[in-house]
Design a protein that fits this description.
nine-stranded mixed β-sheet, single chain, eight-stranded mixed β-sheet, alpha+beta, globular
């Protein structure tokens, strides 16, 4: 068992018995959010500066193009919103989030059980009603329109490379809208996909055509693909942001690792039609960090809308080795070094 969750709003903490699960919380609050976890016996937050920057970018994108995904009271007619500069967004979000976490982190750490890390989800939610008293929404006063929620729960880190720990994936649905921003309504939107999840599958993959695989429902997706049937000539593939995938923090770190290690990488959606050339596959997010893939299932025909349940679908399957492949191991080892070196200490 993990420790009970803690939820705060603008630094005011709810008692553990009142705390919903993180998925329930996200379904009941619109907004931009990010999730990470602590590292090294909860002494620091992993890749925190990158998460704050991504959170600010998500909030800015939603504010400019889809304010109904950022604000509660969305049934009200929104005023004309003036775009706010990226630098102001980042400064504002960092100030709001840091102020909130500084108040609640000591409480969350006190509730943490020995041997656990903390999963941390921070959500920024706007309120249209608060806009009425602001004359210049492009100025610094825009910060007063937002509330910052922080959800903490106990988390036991995933053991990389252990036998039986490979992910089992299935392609079940189309890619997300507004994929460049991470917003809470996606938790509700992805729920219908669950009816198509085979029992052994641990993560769902998204594709718009049943061939080019974009990402997972909560992960980014990578394959190590041979070129021209040559075992010595290969490249790492992952879908580009322009295809409509979330710009994950770990995704970007993987790209940096490949560049630094001289590992060939191409930002292209892995194509199932080439799956015979796939030697390895792995998924990434900020809780698992990196997990090798054991199997991938793909529907034989791309008529998922007619299916009401996973057992009505005829599947094809690709199997990988039980343990991580050589390239996955190299990337994970280098990424592990970054995990310890790119943390924001809070003690």
């Amino acid at each position: 068992m993990t420790s009970p969750g803690i939820l705060s709003c603008n630094g005011v903490v709810s008692y553990p018995s009142e705390t919903p699960s993180v998925s329930t919380f996200l379904q009941t609050h619109p907004g931009a959010y990010t999730t990470t976890r602590t590292h090294n016996n909860s002494s620091c937050l992993m890749f925190w500066e990158r998460h704050v920057q991504r959170l600010a970018n998500s909030a800015r994108i939603l504010f400019d193009s889809n304010p109904q995904l950022l604000f509660k009271s969305a049934d009200a007619i929104p005023p004309l919103l003036t775009p706010v500069s990226s630098s102001m967004w980042e400064s504002m979000i960092k100030s709001l989030v840091d102020d909130s976490l500084n108040k609640v982190l000591p409480v969350a750490l006190k509730e943490r059980r020995d041997g656990e890390e903390l999963a941390v989800t921070v959500l920024v939610e706007g309120d249209f009603q608060k806009l009425s008293g602001i004359e210049d929404v492009s100025g610094s006063s825009i910060g007063g329109v937002f509330d910052v929620y922080a959800h903490f729960s106990g988390y036991v880190p995933f053991a990389f490379g252990v036998g039986g720990n490979g992910a089992r994936l299935a392609v079940v649905g189309r890619g997300r809208d507004v994929a460049e921003a991470k917003f809470s309504d996606w938790v509700r939107l992805r729920k219908p996909l669950e009816k198509l999840r085979p029992p052994s599958v641990t993560e769902l993959l998204l594709s718009n055509d049943g061939d080019r695989i974009l990402e997972g429902s909560v992960t980014n997706f990578f394959v190590v693909c041979r070129k021209d049937n040559s075992a010595a000539d290969f490249e790492v593939q992952t879908a580009p942001i322009s295809d409509g995938v979330l710009p994950g923090v770990i995704r970007q770190l993987i790209i940096e690792v490949c560049i630094n290690k001289g590992i060939p990488l191409r930002e292209v959606a892995p194509s199932w039609s080439e799956h015979e050339l796939w030697e390895e596959a792995f998924i990434t997010n900020s809780l698992r960090v990196l997990q090798h893939v054991k199997s991938i299932q793909v529907p034989r025909t791309w008529e998922l809308r007619e299916s009401k349940c996973w057992d009505e679908i005829a599947w094809k399957e690709k199997q990988f080795e039980e343990s991580p492949g050589m390239i996955t191991n190299v990337i994970q080892f280098d990424l592990h070094g970054k995990t310890g070196g790119d943390c924001a200490s809070h003690r």
